[in-house]
Amino acid sequence: LKMSWFWFYLPLHLLVVAYLCHSIKAPTTSSQQSFKTDLFNFYHSLILADGKETTIHLLKDIPKRYYFVLEEGRALAPFTITVTPCDVPIEWSILVHKASASFLGKAARGDHNTQGVSKSQKASSMVSTIFNYKGNSVETYMGMSSHSALYILEFLSTERDTHITVYLTTDTTSGHLYPELPVDPRIDVIGIGHTTVTLTWKHSPSVLQHRENIQYCLLVNEKHNYKSLCAAETAIRSSGMKLPPTLALSLSPYLLEPQQVMILSNSELSIINRASGGEVRQICMGTKNTYTLPSLRPSTQYYFDVFVVNLLTNASAAYTGTFARTLDEPEPKVTELKDGKVIQVVLDGKKQKSHNLQYQPKHKKIQFTFQLCHGQVRVHITKNGKTVASENISGLRYFSLKGKLLDTYLVQVRSTEETNSSVKVQASPHFHKPLFPLLPESLKIKSFSKLRTCNSVTIAWLGTQEESKYCVYKKKIEEDQIWMELQNADRCSGPESRHKSEKVLCKYFYDINLQRAVTTETIKGLDAGTLYLFDVYLFGSSGIPVRYHSKVVKTRRKC
Predict the structure, then answer these.
(1) Could you give the angle at the alpha carbon of 370 between the alpha carbons of 417 and 505, nearest 5°?
(2) Residues ≥6 apart with Cβ < 8 Å to 65
(3) Rounded to a whole number, what is the distance in angstroms from the first to the last CA of the chain?
(4) Total Cβ atoms within 10 A of residue 430
(5) 247: number of Cβ within 10 Å
(6) Cβ distance 165 to 45 under 8 Å?
């Protein structure tokens, strides 16, 4: 091979070493230290890949250098560098190490005799800074490069260890790695409700050109806006939340952590992270550029960021974030409670999550009675503005309170989940006739596996010291109906809601000795290998029933 071909195949980093050796003055006693410093900096730099996004980890107060040169034979060519901070602000600069083309050629030929180089040629070798920036915004530098120039990128983080991404390209003819933003990249808030915010933004030109490879992802949080998807991911992870890679930008089936909820509906992917710092939502909605966020909290400020994402490369560009405050929660209506009257409060869990009841007694001793019918409910009772009771309700609950005549009691009933809830409420003087019958220690129904046959089952339940009426009902169900039947059971409904064919029997019993206040019943005439749902209703003197917890029993298939 000729020598020219030999240098053509010489690795790039050796060419750069040769370049540095010849573009710096030969080391004398006075310049020896600076020469060593240049070589040290070179060996602690890395070649920056062209056309590829590079992730760089920075240690606090320790600068890091990368460099690049253009291909041989290209006199002038445009290039762009995009730097994305993923956490704290950083400092970064672009330095150029220039030398004349003829001088670089001498270095490539291995001519180490620099004594014949003129002063003007030595002067043509110099280092200068052409760009520097400090901050946490995504910045892009566009310039023209010469094959006789070595470009050095310096990065420094002075706050803490962090990481950034850097994208260098010298190919301006092919498509962009990053999706394009519209001329006006702002997000507009076009609607605000108590629990909803509606946003819209202008389409990215990339969506119009490559619709199948581009999608929008929306990030919602209660702290602040993020200038890049990379910064958002870092902040969410540092808050203690586990986040799937690239913010679930594709519909890959990631394994979620316990504090995450993934919702996939109508071609939209939503991931909800819950942590002490608040709720963070990520929604990827394809190419729709208008979106209404549901189920927000009233009187809360939210920050919204939209990212347009290239699904092929996972590269993204951020719109200018915005924020909005949801409307204050309307004052709930107040219902007056009257002595002994029963009110059933129904909450839908979304539009109306709470209901207020007011009671002004004519007696010093009063009693509040609550019977949970469905869902999950929390009760908060205040007397003249001071809290006297607050707890979640399960089954039946009594609150006996003592005060003064004409005290004002305010009862707030609040749903603790987004499904429908209902509860019956009664306020009465302490000596008033009880609304509900005397209850046993447990409302569970027990079945005896050894007494099961192909056409009968035996069940048992606890009674009380007060003679009461008990009615048993049965219902055939399928295996896949068990959860729904138990979950949606209305614990306030009585036998009047049941079909007459479901009634098995009614009986009276009691026992002064509570340890013997147990009754059993064998239900016959059943089908083999069939699931049955059994209910027991207890009736007191007021006639209002209390429903025991439903029991599912399956008859034997073979006997």
Answers:
(1) 100
(2) 41, 44, 45, 46, 152, 153, 154, 155
(3) 95
(4) 13
(5) 20
(6) no
Higher pLDDT, 535 or 348: 535
208/215 Cα distance (integer angstroms)? 11
Give yes or no for a contact between 529 and 557, defined as CB atoms under 8 angstroms apart: yes
Instruction: Give dist(CA 509, CA 517) in Å, integer.
Output: 8
Per-residue confidence (pLDDT) for residue 23, from 0 to 100? 43
Residue 49, burial from CB neighbour count under 10 angstroms (0-12, 13-18, 19+): middle
pLDDT of residue 244: 43
- Tell me the H-state helices in 109-228: 119-123, 205-209
In the chain, the percentage of residues whose pLDDT exceeds 70 is: 75
How far is Cα 129 from Cα 143, in angstroms, rounded to an integer?
Answer: 13
* Residue 167 exposure: Cα atoms within 13 Å on the Cβ side: 19
- Tell me the mean pLDDT in the region 261-265: 42
Q: Which amino acid is at 301?
A: Q
- Which of 378-382, 433-437, 473-477 is the least confident region? 433-437
Computed over every residue of the chain, the mean pLDDT equals: 80
Out of 156-165, 339-348, 448-457, 548-557, least confident range? 339-348
388 CB-contact burial (10 Å; exposed 0-12 / middle 13-18 / buried 19+): middle
**CA dist., res. 410 & res. 358, Å (int):** 5
pLDDT band at 557 (very low <50, low <70, confident <90, very high): very high
Is the dihedral angle over the CA atoms 442, 443, 449, 455 positive or is it negative? positive
CA 20 to CA 492: how far, in whole Å? 87
Domains and CATH numbers, the chain: 42-99+126-169 (2.60.120.510), 187-249+278-325 (2.60.40.10), 334-428 (2.60.120.380), 445-554 (2.60.40.10)
CA distance 5 to 1: 6
In this prediction, residue 213 carries a pLDDT of 86
What is the full DSSP assignment across 412-464? EEEESSSS-EEEEEEEEETTSPPSSPPP-S----EE-GGG--SS-EEEEEE--
Planar angle of CA 209, 213, 217, nearest 5 degrees: 105
Cα(519)–Cα(509) distance, integer angstroms: 8
